[in-house]
Design the sequence.
């Protein structure tokens, strides 16, 4: 079996080598022997290393379904777009690492100029520190005693944690007393109906004073998250976001006398970071004040929720394109108007909208053809229900559908290893790298 794979890949590599994308950037060279623990890897490649697998430039047709892939060109384009935008508007970036939980993508973001990486749990913080991330924004109150004690020990990485009330500071205090290195704390400012965060400027100021007065803690700035306050790009929603950000800026100004060193002002999920820059970028003046945007979904983008709400759709935002695609094979045509494909909730995201059918590769090979009249109506654990009308009725068992996906945050966590294609829209996409995720 491996000999047949070797002969095929040698021939395939000769034909497709010119299409490779500038060398391996992510994890292929670091992954050992491939096996059944990686559902994206073909059976014929088990027993090969990641580097060997990619070296033969396997085509998409050799990969199993169901499958989710990344597009190298889109990843690079999205990274360059946000980095360029940040430079133009005058802010720094600390992309949210929980979106991908892929350390190689974090490293690429840092190499591209990101100031730091954001995380959302103590475990994610531990992963980031173990991977050598030099600056980590831990966007939550750290209350696990062992973690607080560890953060108070000498370390080279800078870590900033959140606190939104005097009670949070009091809960931290016993575990940081006598810390060899003070822990940087950002006051988390929220809004009524939002998530965490002090609900008034008065409560936030009281929190800041408690931080400043607590041995082992250091007041390092203010933080907020605007994304939970709106869910579309209507004028009303944008006005709500802007008003909130103006309050965050006012809080920063009110705390000026309490800061010890450079102050960090951070906000900016993936939906409204253009407004964050519009309101907060005037404060950016390192080393006195540093404004940091935490958008994370931009790198992979999507064909659903973020396609509809991202600043890509507004004149003030950079342009992104979807780097994630699903690939499912039609396995049953049990009745007219219905096809069942081999991917489901265990493989594809569904919390921010169902996948959309974009194209079909007949019998799983050859150029993708646009398809109309095919709509995903439901996902079971391992099945995709596709309603067919018009020309889509000609879908056959064995055809492979390319799916647009919605919400990268719940896509990456279903895949321990994702193939990176040179171009998902090419007649025969080629695997040029692999990305490993770490989701515990």
Sequence:
């Amino acid at each position: 079996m491996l000999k047949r794979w070797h002969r095929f890949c040698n021939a395939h590599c000769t034909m497709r080598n010119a299409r490779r994308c500038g060398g391996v950037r992510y994890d292929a060279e670091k992954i050992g022997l491939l096996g059944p623990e990686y559902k994206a890897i073909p059976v014929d490649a088990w027993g090969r290393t990641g580097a060997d697998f990619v070296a033969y430039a396997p085509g998409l047709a050799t990969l199993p379904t169901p499958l989710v892939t990344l597009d190298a060109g889109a990843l690079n384009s999205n990274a360059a777009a946000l980095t360029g935008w940040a430079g133009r508007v005058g802010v720094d970036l600390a992309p949210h690492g929980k979106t991908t939980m892929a350390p190689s993508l974090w490293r690429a973001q840092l190499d591209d100029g990101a100031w730091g990486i954001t995380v959302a749990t103590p475990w994610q913080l531990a992963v980031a520190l173990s991977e050598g991330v030099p600056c980590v924004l831990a966007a939550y109150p750290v209350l696990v005693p062992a973690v607080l004690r560890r953060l108070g020990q000498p370390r080279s990485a800078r870590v900033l944690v959140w606190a939104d009330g005097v009670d949070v500071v009091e809960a931290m205090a016993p575990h940081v007393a006598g810390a060899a290195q003070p822990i940087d704390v950002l006051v988390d400012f929220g809004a009524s109906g939002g998530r965490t965060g002090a609900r008034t400027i008065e409560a936030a100021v009281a929190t800041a004073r408690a931080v400043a007065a607590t041995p082992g803690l250091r007041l390092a700035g203010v933080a907020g998250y605007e994304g939970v306050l709106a869910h579309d790009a209507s004028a009303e929603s944008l006005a709500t976001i802007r008003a909130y950000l103006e309050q965050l800026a006012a809080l920063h100004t009110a705390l000026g006398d309490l800061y010890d060193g450079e102050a960090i002002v951070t906000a900016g999920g993936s939906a409204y970071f253009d407004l964050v820059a519009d309101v907060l970028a005037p404060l950016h003046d390192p080393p006195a004040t540093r404004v940091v945007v935490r958008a994370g979904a931009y790198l992979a983008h999507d064909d659903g929720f973020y396609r509809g709400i991202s600043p890509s759709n507004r004149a003030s935002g950079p342009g992104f394109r979807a780097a994630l695609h699903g690939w499912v094979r039609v396995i049953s045509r049990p009745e007219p108007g219905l096809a069942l494909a081999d991917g489901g909730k265990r493989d594809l995201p569904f919390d921010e909208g169902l996948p959309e059918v974009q194209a079909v590769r007949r019998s799983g090979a050859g150029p993708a053809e646009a398809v109309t009249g095919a709509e995903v109506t439901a996902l079971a654990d391992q099945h995709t229900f596709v309603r067919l009308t018009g020309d889509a009725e000609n879908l056959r068992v064995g055809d492979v559908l390319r799916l647009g996906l919605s919400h990268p945050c719940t896509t990456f966590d279903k895949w321990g290893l994702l193939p990176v294609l040179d171009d998902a829209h090419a007649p025969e996409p080629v695997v040029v790298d692999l990305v490993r995720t770490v989701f515990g």
